[in-house]
Amino acid sequence: MTPTTNSSGAASAPVVSLQSVDKSFGPVHALAGASMVVRAGECIGLVGHNGAGKSTFVNVINGRLTPTAGQVQYGAHTAVGGGRNADLAATNGIRSVFQELSLCPNLTVLENYRIPFRTMPRWGWRKAARIAVMTALDDVFPGHGIGPDAVVADLSIAERQMVEIAIAFSARDIAPRLVILDEPTSSLDAGISNQLLDHVRKFCSTGGAVIFITHMMGEIFQVADRIVVMKDGRVVEDRPTGAFTRQTLVDTMGHVAADGGNVAAEKAERVPGDIVLSLPNGLSARKGEIVGLAGLAGHGQAEALARFYFDKTSTWRARRQPDVVFVAGDRGRDGVMPIWSILKNLSLVTLFEFGRRGLVDRHKEGELGATWKQKIQIKTSDLGNPILSLSGGNQQKVLFAKALASSAPIVIMDDPMRGVDVGTKKEVYRMIRAEAEAGRTFLWYSTETDEILECDRVFVFRDRAISAELTGPQISEENILRASFEMQEAAE
User: What digits encode the pLDDT tens for the residues 29-49?
Assistant: First the structure.
């Protein structure tokens, strides 16, 4: 690895270095001899499939986890373990934004900023905190529209993600030296994501460092100076970004699913079925159709999905089989049952389908879990393990399996690919296409243009209304962007 150099040509000082780090959780070896040096002024793209060890690696860096073996050093200070590493990391300016957001939902934006600020004055702190948190939001996300007194629980998931990112970059008693961003754009639309990428570049140009974890390949190539690839708890490659192409990066990560190319290009012409859902705002879908909801985040897409879902499920307990199933993007709030096992989360929707006389058929439940563990590559040694033992991406796979394993004719997906690796995404796209060809209907909101391009028909939202309906060749990034900003048809 070539050391990063500053403008004078001298090698930048290490912010943190890890040497031959191991981390075990009982018989599970999450890290095995992983090494990396992070230097001031560089952005490192940390990539790997779900379960590769990325989250464990960065939790060793920020001190939340103590390594089983190996050494962690913050500048001139060596981590000693015993629960003190988190304090040592914080003292050395290490900050993290986790994939599972950690804001306190019952507190305001202002109060959440106050929590990590150790030397905030006891009296009159609100005025100082209000200035600081709004400055941070304005710097990272110009035009954000988030108020300092807003209660976090009332914010959309995109706004919550923006708040947590801004707090991580904010001015406090100890200046940030390294900011770890774990899937930071997973709930942000393209415009807001670009604002973050611009800020990351600016932060690194002034001597800060960033570890950027994402499955969005384009973002890695836009922002990273160096790419570190992890696989099975090991660092398998560490090279400058220019040494990779998208294909060589995917090859280095390793394939978890067969590469079938672009599913959008494989769409078969099908005769539309009957309309199976219709909403007063003009949104509709036919049997066997994949309908996308696009537009800037927070413009009414999630509300439209929720309205339809609750209308259809208000008498769910009176039915043996649901008419509609839901794949949540905000899995912490709307998706997983945190105290249940992986298998119980996966089988929840299908209990009626293989139950007998009101009792669960454990044998059939086990067969279902084993089938989907293999089919969607859920990385666990035992489906009886707690759902929270999985990485975020693998938790999301469980939510997909839960929905697709059911017989519900309509599947609603609310930005469902948060934290899912590129190989699994391709496999899920193929599953969705196959299910649609068999007559299943999908209603799919996504902040990722590549996913919207997989759809048969797209409704673009602006200001909580539909600004355009696109079909066939009209479905393009240019037309979606045009309709996102203009209340008119996106294609003539």
Answer: 889 999 999 999 999 999 987
The CA distance from 136 to 4, in Å, is: 27
Alpha-carbon span 393 to 383, nearest angstrom: 16
Count of residues making up the chain: 492
Amino acid at 424: T
pTM equals 0.68
Chain segment 325-345, per-residue pLDDT in tens: 888 877 777 778 888 999 999
Q: What pLDDT, in 10s, does the model give residues 302-325?
A: 778 877 777 666 554 445 567 888
Minimal CA–CA distance to 285: which of 315, 267, 308? 308
CB 444 within 8 A of CB 292: yes
Residues 435 and 349 in one domain: yes
Same domain (yes/no): 359, 215: no
User: 106 with 135, same domain?
Assistant: yes
Tally the domains of the chain: 2
- Which CATH number is 429's domain given? 3.40.50.300
Residue that terminates a domain, selected from 253, 287, 311: 253
SS3 state at 385: coil
Find, among 165, 175, 174, 171, the residue nearest to 98 by Cα: 165
Q: What share of the chain is helix, strand, coil (3-state, %, to 5)?
A: 35, 25, 40
Domain range enclosing 182: 14-253
Q: Judge if 447 and 361 occupy the same domain.
A: yes
Compute and round to an integer the Cα radius of gyration of the chain.
23
What distances in angstroms separate CA 260 from CA 245, 314, 391, 427, one per listed residue? 18, 39, 25, 8
Q: Would the pLDDT of 388 be above 80?
A: yes
Structure tokens at 106: 């019952």
